[in-house]
Amino acid sequence: MIKEIVPLKITEVPTGTRVFDWKVPNEWQIRDAYIADAKETRLVDFKRHNLHVVNYSAPVDAWMTLGELKPHLHTLPEQPDLIPYRTSYYQKTWGFCLSHNDLESMDDQQKYRVVIDSTLAPGSLTYGEAYLPGSSQKEILLSTHVCHPSLANDNLSGVVVAAYLARELQRLDTRFSYRFLFVPATIGTICWLSNNKSHLQNIHGGLVLAGVGGPGPFTYKRSRAGNTPIDRIATRVLKDRRSHVVQDFVPMGYDERQYCSPGVNLPVGSLSRAPYDTYPEYHTSADNPTFLTPEQLFESLAVVSDVVAALEHDLVFESNRPFGEPMLSKYNLYSTGELGQDEKDIQQALLWLLNFSDGQHSLIDIAERSGLPMHAMLEAAKKLEQHDLLRRSNEDRCE
């Protein structure tokens, strides 16, 4: 389905492949899973909701008492109507997830048939990659995880935003090249990094997109370095919005952990609307399509697009009128009438740009110094270029 939106190269990494300190595990195939009573009525049914089985469960087919079964059951007593999401990728076990209400309705005196029809066998790990070349070999990396079944915010939302951003960028002539990764979390990212060690020097900046469809405020988590162009630009773009949070890097979370790991340490931050494990729907059956709205997804796409636009236009300019301040009214760039806030910001940005465009300051430098919105800087630079008052310096932050 992603390939219908953006061309993807599919990579298969065989079971047993060594990737840094890890090894690609067996491939899991699941066909059916259920808990049934003596009348063969399915009380828990993978085909009804695939969160019902612990992902990567080993096969089982047995009759058990509830007491024997309970160590393999996972519920949320504090959220008794919801099914939790659980995995066990690296410890061989099996299990079921169900609502606590359903567990309470089960009978201690009955035996239950427990079936997980699955296989764990040599296969491969799969990830998708879309590369969109620009005028520079320097790349912006957009990464999103694809390994959480039936969870809408975490992380179908990231997949959707990444795919549609890639579709839009295909239509543009860009300064940077763009690489989109659709990967299983952790092990998939480690596979990509291991396969591309010689390529990592080309990464100018990047974002991990996860949980971008929910109702929370935008949250940006800085890269490990903390003051890279992507950190500065993402922070500046979010400051133009009333509700946002900026966090320093910590080695917990999504795949920014891998991109910022020792020996890699790429300039990659993460963007979400609510960070992992901070909203009650997280890793439960409540993280379904009703938790998202088209407006929230579109706003997330708009924010990421703004970050990309700012990266693309974080240029260094020089003034073509280096002595004194140009007479802006002569170029129809100065107004004494009543202005809205956007017009005021752009008019101030014109003056800041003319003053600091000395071949030493990029747009993000001037935006941070002035406190003006990045979009005002971009619009002002466009106007000044059109009137031949600014020229692009040979100093290109892309290179």
Fraction of residues in H or I helices = 25-40%
- Alpha-carbon Rg, integer: 26 Å
| Main sheet strand line-up | 1-10-12-11-13-16-14-15
Measured distance between first and last alpha carbons: 35 Å
Derived from helix and strand composition plus strand pairing, the structural class reads: alpha/beta
Largest pleated sheet: 8 strands, mixed
Name the assembly state. single chain
Pattern of helices and strands: EEEEEEHEEHEEEHEHEEHEHEHEHEHHE
Counting H and I runs of at least 4 residues, what is the number of helices? 10
Tell me the β content. 25-35%
Count of extended strands: 19
Q: Which term fits the overall shape?
A: elongated
Instruction: Let me know the average pLDDT.
Output: 93
Query: What are the segments in which pLDDT stays under 50 over at least 5 consecutive residues?
Result: none
Question: Could you walk me through the main structural features you see in this protein, from its secondary elements to its overall organization?
Answer:
The structure is a single chain. The chain has 399 residues and is α/β, with parallel strands linked by helices. It is 27% helix and 25% strand. It has helices at residues 66-69, 100-104, 152-170, 187-195, 229-239, 256-259, 294-312, 341-356, 363-370, 374-386, and strands at 9-14, 18-19, 22-23, 27-36, 42-45, 60-65, 73-74, 96-97, 111-121, 124-132, 139-145, 177-183, 203-209, 218-221, 244-247, 268-272, 316-319, 358-362, 390-392. Helix 5 packs across helix 7 and helix 8 crosses helix 10 (374-386). The radius of gyration is 26 Å and the shape is elongated. 39% of the residues are buried.
